[in-house]
Write a structure and sequence with these properties.
5 strands, 2 domains, alpha+beta, 200 residues, 5-stranded antiparallel β-sheet, elongated, single chain
Length: 200
């Protein structure tokens, strides 16, 4: 069986209608990944919640702003590692392309030179670590919206309505929100008093 970089890993990390990025090119990609291999809502659950026709799935964690911000020290460590892995994978993919090797097919091949075999092995290890890193993030109840940008969302509430609390790697605090059916461009600042004082 040919070992390829998983669709959900290299093509997108997105929820709802947010658009993902190709890991190696950074270009926008079209439809949401169909693989269902990451945590989150089952098909139809998100729409049902938006329409108020289905109760909130028990396995979805709803964060307060304080709870989301309390995770940032841990998330910063994970995302620093993820960004380093992404840079390494970009470099490895470029190295394989320079040798006329498709970086999305990483199984050893009979005609591989020792150099290509080594590049493939390093790429496979990086992919595995990268997958594990995002699984660690999602195990916390956090949704990965754009892996390349380090854009994460947390389920939260405003005025009784379910929303996304939005944070991007490098920002000092979770200080923005946007509706579930909109993305980063629609985010709005949270009230300053809702952000923990040490993060203001």
């Amino acid at each position: 069986m040919v070992l390829t970089i998983p669709w959900c890993l290299t093509r997108r990390y997105a929820r709802g209608r947010a658009q993902g990025k190709d890991v190696t090119t950074g270009k926008d990609l079209g439809e949401t990944s169909p693989c269902g291999c990451t945590q989150g809502l089952r098909p139809g659950e998100r729409e049902a919640m938006l329409l108020g026709t289905d109760p909130m799935p028990e396995r979805v964690r709803i964060f307060t702003v304080g709870e989301a911000n309390a995770l940032l020290p841990r998330l910063n460590v994970i995302l620093e590692r993820q960004m380093a892995l992404l840079t390494a994978m970009d470099s490895l993919a470029a190295g394989l392309r320079q040798r006329d090797v498709d970086p999305e097919s990483l199984d050893p091949a009979p005609g591989d030179t020792p150099e290509v075999a080594a590049l493939k092995g390093r790429f496979r290890a990086a992919v595995q670590s990268y997958r594990e890193g995002w699984s660690e993030v999602e195990a916390l109840g956090v949704m990965v919206k754009d892996a390349r940008a380090g854009l994460l969302d947390f389920y939260g509430r405003r005025g009784g309505s379910l929303v996304w609390l939005c944070w991007k790697y490098g920002e000092p605090a979770v200080a923005h929100w946007h509706p579930l059916d909109q993305g980063f461009s629609a985010r709005q600042p949270l009230e300053r008093e809702s952000i923990p004082p040490t993060l203001n």
